[in-house]
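[SOLVED] Predicted holo structure with flavin-adenine dinucleotide

Edit: marking solved, answer below. Original request kept for reference. I posted the sequence and ligand SMILES and asked for the 3D complex as structure tokens.
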Amino acid sequence: MNKYDTIIIGSGPVGLSLAKSLSNANFSVCVIDRQTAKDLSSPPYDGREVAITHFSKRILNDIGSWDLIDESCISQLKEAKVVNGHSPYSLHFDFEDTNQSTLGYLIPNHKIKSAIFSSIIDDPKITFKEQSSSKSFHINPEGVEVELDSGETIHGELLVAADGRLSGSRRQMGIPAEVKDFGKTVIVCKMNHEIEHENIAYECFHYGRTLAVLPMVGKQCSVVITVHSDKAKDILDQDDTVFSQDIAERFNHRLGKMSIASEKFSYPLFASHADHFHAERFALVGDASVGMHPVTAHGFNLGLRGIDTLTRILNEAKSSNEPFYTKENLKKYNQTHQMNTRTLYYGTNLIVDLFNSERSYAKFMRRFALRFGNNVWPIKKMIMDQLTETK
Ligand SMILES: Cc1cc2nc3c(=O)[nH]c(=O)nc-3n(C[C@H](O)[C@H](O)[C@H](O)COP(=O)(O)OP(=O)(O)OC[C@H]3O[C@@H](n4cnc5c(N)ncnc54)[C@H](O)[C@@H]3O)c2cc1C
């Protein structure tokens, strides 16, 4: 009977990154996903432009994926400004206050996914089972058995669930999770514009909706609108000219004339956080462990931090010739990663609630929060360190 060191359910960007990271540390891995290898090797454009921190760049480099990303689509984020309503005042982050040449990078999600897939597909230590869904699994002291919907059963020492924020595996393991439905929808698209963006990202909190304008390569930006879900259809159905004029106006014409340059995509907005990220011979990674609100651009970045922690802990045990799948090791992963995720998760949700509330105290707090953030250097430094640290 063939027994893999690790079985990963889900070949999203985090599941695949973990597969490669474990294979680099000499673990044998089997990854299963419902999708086909063809879908994963050239995923369609999905409107998501993902902000990548320096730490994430290092992980993508270590697993051999960074160099496979088409360089011409990587945009640098030099500055970021957070604006309240139409006030000219902004909370401002500048790469010049850091020891890096940029705050981070903006890369189309489909390019990241195809680069990671290319780095795993010919790896002899990774078996990829396409068009396979996990029907059920059983965990016992001898190991893990995963039954696929094809009827095949695969065996392993450790099972890792990377099956997204509504993780069926998490549910099957009986791990509770907080799921916060914001009742909102995110609409994303690409837009062309007249005036250079100077690599500045904007997050504008308007009443009833937020608008993020993120600098892409050339005179192009990614527009991210968050609205109450009952208003989403109107925006999705809006005529291109009306939509473009409306966005330019809401953005105070900072980029001059704007025109939509792609289809609009929408995503329901909810966040989730699992109570714990481990059980007997079982671990949660990526959105299955923490699904972040996209406003602080942390979802994938936190996923990569989690796989770095998990690989390091499992590898330390393996290198000392000890069983790597023990509850103690998985508990260590849980404790370390929870420390990274909890503050960001609850901090992000607090910011979202504060900037979306119509109550008068919230309006006051918003103005106060931006000034406080700008003038209290330790807070600003902590946020910039999150973006630029590499360890
Ligand atoms: C609009 C938007 C903007 C974002 N921007 C950013 C950003 O700027 N920065 C950032 O860091 N993050 C961002 N994110 C978050 C980021 O996209 C996610 O955190 C990331 O995609 C999570 O990857 P994952 O691999 O954990 O899960 P997923 O991408 O959800 O992948 C899960 C995989 O599991 C498979 N699967 C599910 N169930 C089964 C099963 N039973 N059997 C087999 N396979 C199964 C699915 O087919 C899928 O391939 C954004 C998200 C959105 C929506």
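OP edit: The pocket of flavin-adenine dinucleotide is lined by residues 9-15, 32-35, 48, 50-51, 133-134, 162-164, 168, 186, 188, 267, 286-287, 294, 297-301, 303 (CB under 6 Å). Thanks to everyone who chimed in.
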